[in-house]
Backbone:
């Protein structure tokens, strides 16, 4: 089977969508299938897409690019031999996927990764109108798909509430569970992060952007009233300068450590070398880093939402998104030590093999329907 993976973003960008695509491609290839990435062209990278969509730079400092939906004869010939088209964006590349699915009579699968209405602050228009437009786009696009994959039941219910009538399959995004479970605590890494004895390291792995609610982690750290507790931020993004200023203004400059972008290969050791994981975002469809933290054996404190409750599956501590509630939860997490059974249960739920098998079942069902039509 040849599966066309259409995405608005791909390497060198690293985010939850790209991690999800990597996991899907790894699983498909391990199962003997071919995954063909169709994504905007960018600077040279070891994992460049097989079919490079022409693109233009955006008028802001970002690695994201504006796709131009024009492909040459060779690319069109490559896509003609696909078995299934699987899109990961309702934007330009997503609509390209719709076009080629119709042109070649192929099943169209869409994975819903992002609550677009939660990103309305990036658009310079009236907020309510932008949110309505985002919801309309999501509903319209999802209803064009033969099947929609969502990572949590909470997001399936969300799409139904928006008016999505296409068949839905709840399939959590897989991670390399063996890699994240194998991370080892490193005294050397801890010393590089914070040169102080008896320090408790609280990790946050996130894009530094407004919708990630990182300020809540700062407020919780201040309310924790524990000078030995430090917050380690792995990730970069447009809000980093503002967050650095906010940490200094709150008197936390020496206790908040900005690592910038951390390559995924280095994350298992980082997880294992910290003492707790904090997840303040309320806008995720799943939160891949939550699964990574649980598999790595970290006690987790997360903002309570239906999707985080579902991902944690009874492990971790859910707290209302207030400084006081998060501080109390962090105090319990740091005192309680590492959970014993959570990592084992997460290994079963979030393996790439499980994700791949369930997605292949969706593909197979759609191909059978096409053949019998």
Residues:
């Amino acid at each position: 089977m040849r599966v066309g993976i259409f995405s608005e973003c791909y390497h060198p960008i690293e985010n939850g969508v790209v991690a999800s695509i990597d996991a899907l491609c790894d699983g498909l290839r391990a199962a003997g299938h071919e995954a063909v990435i169709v994504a905007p062209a960018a600077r040279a990278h070891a994992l460049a897409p097989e079919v490079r969509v022409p693109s233009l730079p955006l008028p802001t400092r970002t690695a994201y690019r504006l796709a131009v939906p024009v492909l040459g004869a060779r690319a069109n010939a490559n896509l003609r031999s696909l078995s299934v088209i699987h899109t990961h964006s309702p934007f330009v590349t997503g609509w390209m996927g719709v076009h080629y699915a119709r042109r070649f009579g192929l099943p169209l699968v869409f994975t819903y990764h992002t609550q677009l209405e939660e990103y309305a602050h990036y658009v310079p228009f009236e907020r309510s109108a932008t949110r309505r437009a985002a919801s309309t786009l999501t509903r319209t696009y999802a209803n064009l798909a033969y099947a929609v994959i969502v990572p949590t039941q909470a997001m399936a219910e969300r799409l139904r509430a928006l008016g999505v009538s296409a068949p839905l399959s709840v399939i959590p995004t897989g991670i390399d569970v063996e890699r994240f479970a194998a991370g080892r605590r490193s005294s050397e890494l801890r010393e590089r992060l914070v040169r102080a004895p008896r320090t408790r390291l609280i990790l946050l792995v996130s894009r530094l952007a407004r919708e990630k609610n990182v300020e809540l982690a700062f407020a919780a750290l201040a309310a924790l009233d524990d000078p030995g507790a430090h917050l380690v931020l792995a990730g970069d993004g447009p809000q980093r300068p503002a967050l650095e200023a906010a940490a200094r203004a709150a008197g936390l400059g020496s206790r908040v450590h900005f690592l910038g972008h951390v390559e995924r290969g280095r994350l298992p050791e980082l997880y294992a070398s910290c003492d707790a994981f904090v997840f303040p975002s309320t806008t995720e469809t799943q939160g891949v880093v939550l699964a990574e933290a649980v598999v790595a054996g970290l006690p987790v404190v997360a903002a309570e939402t239906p999707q985080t409750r579902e991902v944690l599956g009874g492990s971790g501590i859910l707290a209302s998104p207030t400084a006081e509630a998060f501080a109390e939860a962090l105090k319990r997490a740091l005192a309680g030590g590492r959970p014993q059974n959570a990592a084992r249960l997460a290994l079963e739920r979030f393996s790439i093999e499980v994700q791949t098998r369930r997605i292949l079942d969706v593909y197979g069902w759609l191909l059978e329907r096409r053949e019998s039509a």
Notes: The chain has a mean pLDDT of 92.
